[in-house]
Amino acid sequence: ALAGRARKAPLDATALPADLPATWGGNDVQGPALMLTSLIVFTLLDTNSKLLSGSYGVGQVIFFRFLVLVPAFLLLRALRPGLGGPLTTTRPALHLLRAVCMMVSASSFFLGFRHMALAEGYLIFFTAPFLTLALAALVLREAVAPRAWMWCGVGFAGVALAMLPRLTEEGQTLDGAVWMLLGVVGFSVTQTVNRSLRGENSLGALVLWPGLLGLMLFGPLAALDWHPPSLVDALRLGLNGILAGSAIVLSAAAFRYADAARLGPYAFVALPASILFDAVLWGVSPSSAMLAGAVTVVTACVMSERTRRRV
Question: What is the pLDDT of residues 7-55, one digit of tens each?
Fold first, then answer.
């Protein structure tokens, strides 16, 4: 549910505000370290959301996320005027499209994880780079090597290898897969728009406007299906806002210190982390088909990225 998944494949470095430092400590470990930290935070966000999904609806959980994220951002900006860059834009239509797609992906990923294991959901999520590649070719007219398309096919085959046995066994898994695929579409469109907005030097606008839209959309949904949370649950609901905001900033900062080619493979740390959380919190162990499919998808993603860089 990367602020809805600004998520595992974050913003380009060119979309970062100018007040982020260009270097941090004088060595080349900052980018990977920040990326790994952001991915752990993203996984904690999804894990916490899945735990909450048993008691609270999608509207209430995501509304709380933005209810914390937006005021926290405004408070930081008040304490440090100008933090995050300008909040205005010359391309409001693209920002609106991006914000809507973020809401779609945030709610879809929440509903998907409600019906399936974390690791299964992440495996489907890893098809996002392939769809983003297709959108880059069709919408942005970027050149894509034939081998990259081949690796796309291999990646989807890996997902099928892992998921088909489960889809034929449990209806809930099928429901979760449909929601996850819808989330992947929303996330991939968001990433494509991010690339179109790379010339805008404002992280603040990319955080604030989707947050305000989230409050407007999910506030009424939360009111319709409101369950008074206990103090502990209220803190956990609010924690999602802190986790989402922290993950966005950490991943964006990572791209300040290293390029996508270097940071891309680190995204797959989410898969073993999700397998660990599945085992510890829900007692779910991956099947042999799941592990084989995961290896296939990871290999396809890495090879597709290497092929793309050679174009």
Answer: 444 344 434 444 444 444 445 678 778 878 888 898 999 999 999 998 9
Note whether 122 and 271 are within 8 A (CB): yes
| 74, two tokens | 């405004």
Q: At what angle do helices 270-277 and 30-52 cross, to 10 degrees?
A: 30
Distance from C-alpha of 202 to C-alpha of 98, rounded to nearest angstrom: 14
Judged on CB neighbours under 10 Å (0-12, 13-18, 19+), 74 is middle
pLDDT given for residue 141 in this prediction: 78
For the entire predicted model, the pTM comes to: 0.81
Digit-coded pLDDT (tens) for 234-259: 999 999 999 988 887 787 677 677 66
- Please name the amino acid found at residue 112: G
107 and 62 in contact (C-beta within 8 Å)? yes
DSSP at 116: S
Predicted confidence (pLDDT) per residue in 160-197, tens digit: 888 777 766 655 678 888 999 999 999 889 878 877 77
**Residue type at position 226:** W
From CA 193, how far away is CA 13, in angstroms rounded?
A: 14
pLDDT at 87 > cutoff 60: yes
Distance (Å, whole) CA 279 – CA 303: 29
CA distance 249 to 273: 20
Instruction: Kindly give, in sequence order, each residue whose CB lies less than 8 Å from that of residue 235, ignoring residues fewer than 6 positions away.
Output: none
Strand, coil or helix: what is 206?
helix
Report how far residue 85's alpha carbon sits from residue 15's, in angstroms, rounded to the nearest whole number: 10
Contact 103/241 with Cβ under 8 angstroms? Answer: no
Q: How far are the Cα atoms of 47, 111, 153, 284, 309 from residue 184, in angstroms, in the given order?
A: 18, 13, 16, 23, 23
Tokens standing for residue 63: 């509304």
DSSP 271-303: HHHHHHHIIIII-----HHHHHHHHHHHHHHHH
